[in-house]
Design goal:
The chain is mostly helical. The protein has helices at 2-6, 10-14, 17-29, 32-43, 46-51, 53-61, 64-69, 71-93. Helix 3 (17-29) runs parallel beside helix 6 (53-61).
Length: 94
């Protein structure tokens, strides 16, 4: 999976003009476990992300502060979001 190949480079992607867009697209298409892997790596460099103009958007979009402070709620929200996306994708296919 692409996420595993990019492991260790998520901060670099997040702080890049084009890489942040790629990371946003990856985020929207991967399952919860892969989101957790991405968020764990980025959360360890949260301050760096918030100080970068592109990283700032990634930190906000991925709710990294929420991930760090309210992990259970973050997991529940991400699971619900994935379920909603799947439901809409199925509706659009019909």
């Amino acid at each position: 999976m692409v996420v595993l190949k990019l492991k260790g480079r998520f901060t670099q992607l997040a702080c890049d003009r084009h890489g942040s867009r790629v990371l946003d697209q990856i985020w929207g298409s991967v399952p919860l476990r892969m989101k957790q892997i991405i968020a764990e790596e980025l959360a360890s460099r949260e301050k760096e992300l918030w100080s970068d103009p592109f990283g700032h958007h990634i930190a906000r979009n991925l709710a990294l502060t929420h991930f760090l402070k309210r992990r259970r709620e973050w997991d529940e929200h991400q699971a619900a979001e994935s379920k909603r996306r799947k439901m809409f994708a199925e509706l659009l296919e019909d």
